[in-house]
Amino acid sequence: MPDAVICGYARTPFGKFRGALSSYSAVELGIKAVESLLSRTGIDAGSGIIDQVYMGQVLQAGAGQAPARQVALGSGMPYSTPCTTINKVCGSSLKAVMIAATEIRVGVSELVIAGGMESMTNAPRFVRGARRGEAVPFKSLVSILSHDGLTDAYTGEMMGNTGETCALEYGISRGESDAYALRSHKLSIEAWENGWMESECFPMDEISIDEGIRPGADLSSLEGLEPVFSRDGQVTAGNASQVSDGASAVLVASEEMATRLGLPILARIVDYTTSGVEPDRVMSAPIPAVEELLSRNDLGVKDVDLFEHNEAFASASCSIRKHFQIPDDRFNVHGGAISIGHPLGATGTRCLMTLVNAMQRGNHDYGIVTICLGGGNAVAMLISSS
User: Fold this and answer.
1) How far apart are CA 3 and CA 101, in angstroms?
2) Bridge partners of residue 254, in order along the sequence
3) How far is CA 57 from CA 91, 131, 346, in A?
4) Which one of 2, 178, 317, 329 counts the least CB within 10 Å of its CB?
């Protein structure tokens, strides 16, 4: 069975909600990421060598038909290129990589672009049952961002409530969450100041680094924020992931194709899985996913050098770290979505490339990336450096 390897990656800076990237549609952001990926890897977009393009996008309303197809053609790929858009909520782009790896392993494809994109700023509103000629008051319009991206379809609760559920289940205090949020900003600042993020992120006209990072963040300012989802809760705007705009993409290849094209092998995809729990416990879903990867590959937590967990909420990341007793210096070492931002469809491949980046810099052997996603699922992937 052919090995699936990662040969390149690229992402936009992540912009704040209604911030520097708000003039771009999700498709336009996706085109930017894919164009940069092709340029970095020296692949001619028009060569027809790309077997498949898989792009994640959650808030697809108003994007037009087949957003992944728009990205491929907008990047200069030929009409013959097969394209598929994926919606697996926050795990969309990591699922794109999982599909790419499966196709490579079974010999269906040899070179695949997998990524994701989101303009949370430009998500439209909708109305049900409107008739021609009827006035539609603004208050009757429903936000696609909230309805399709941030609300549990089963309980009707906002995803922030699941952060509260997780905090209660695992005994995470407000103080722990605020301290973790501050850590995220500090690590992201450190990563940028040391030039570690330049291998991932390319500058755009508007911004050259992630817009949501707060250099002036301190514990007292975080402690002063009011809980958003429960009067006596702990999830605040400061210890939750940021609503953002951005795109990311990775190049996945068979080892034979990578060698033939002279592409670098940055990491090998060892294994991947999807887990499921009750929808209101979604923040806990990465736990069984990681446990399955460890079990199937005869590994313990101590054998995995780095863990990358999407920081949907600080309480969730604290819970995962606490459950597995992961040392601080092996968990989200470049910060995460609390500081960088969380453009839903783009986050999976952003987390993956950040893990690959950190593993290369530290000469590590194994890494696991995991992401929970609305509805009670989580995706997880085990990668190795050789």
Assistant:
1) 8
2) 4
3) 10, 29, 7
4) 329
Q: What is the pLDDT of residue 2?
A: 92
Sign of the Cα torsion 222, 226, 227, 229 reads negative
DSSP-assigned beta bridge partners for residue 370:
309, 380
Q: Please give the C-alpha separations between residue 117 and each of 40, 176, 246, in angstroms, as whole numbers.
A: 19, 31, 6
Place 205 in a pLDDT band, splitting at 50, 70 and 90: confident
Enclosing H/E stretch for 123: none
Buried b or exposed e, range 328-367, using 16+ CB within 10 angstroms: eebbbbbbbbbbbbbbbbbbbbbbbbbbbbbbeeeebebb
pTM: 0.98
Residue 174 has pLDDT above 90, yes or no: yes
Domain of 301: which CATH number?
3.40.47.10
CB of 353 within 8 A of CB of 200? Answer: yes
Eight-class DSSP state of 165: H
Q: Are 89 and 344 in contact (CB under 8 A)?
A: yes
DSSP 8-class letter at 269: E
| Each residue's pLDDT tens digit, 327-376 | 999 999 999 999 999 999 999 999 999 999 999 998 899 999 999 999 99
The dihedral over CA atoms of 112, 116, 117, 123, expressed in degrees to the nearest 10, equals 130
Tell me the β-bridge partners of 85.
55
Rounded to whole angstroms, how far apart are CA atoms 178 and 314? 7
Provide Rg for the chain, Cα atoms.
Answer: 20
Residue 86 in tokens: 């994926």
Residues 249, 332, single domain; the answer is no
CA distance 250 to 299: 26
**Is residue 149 a contact partner of residue 57, using CB atoms and an 8 Å limit?**
no
The tokens of 113 are what? 């672009």
**Band (1; pLDDT cuts 50, 70, 90):** confident
Residues 35 and 92 reside in one and the same domain: yes
Task: Give the chain's length.
Answer: 386
Cα distance between the two ends of the chain: 16
List the domain range (segments joined by +) for residue 330: 270-384
254 and 315 inside one domain: no
Question: What total number of domains does the chain contain?
Answer: 2
Q: What is the spatial distance between Cα 175 and Cα 349, in angstroms, rounded to a whole number?
A: 30
**Position 386 pLDDT exceeds 80:** no
For the annotated catalytic residues, the residue numbers are: 90, 342, 372
